[in-house]
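Supplementary Note 3. Input sequence used for the single-chain structure prediction.
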Amino acid sequence: MFRPVTRDDPEYRIIFKFASAEHLRQWEQSDARTSRLEDIERLLSSPTQREVTYGIAHWFELPEQPVKTPPPKYKMTIVSWMALYPIVTAVFWLFGEQLALLPLMLRTLLVTAVVMVLMSYVAMPRMTRWFHRWLFGS
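The predicted structure, written as discrete structure tokens, is reproduced below.
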């Protein structure tokens, strides 16, 4: 749940994540969801709005500025690549010799785990701040 950031944008945002489109569909059609929405709608000044995003769009959200519309895919791809390339290069430069000694499956498991953690928690929050104007416009 994201609280309103400014008085100009007084919306609360609740984000749900699902393992698959089928799980999302099941939740959307569930009695529990319908009941909760009926309870909540009575408390709102305007009807709820729903948006579904897929893929890496969540990498391009800053907690202090929740995104209403994700950037175009080509922009997300370019910024992701700009973050990914130096991380992968650094991992192989620092640990390439040790990694070469490991079986392929274990080597790939370790590299992708390190890269994903660094991308999600270090690189992409910074890249999103640095390229915010280009990604989302002014």
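The helical segments are 21-28, 31-41, 73-100, 104-130, 132-136. The mean pLDDT is 82.
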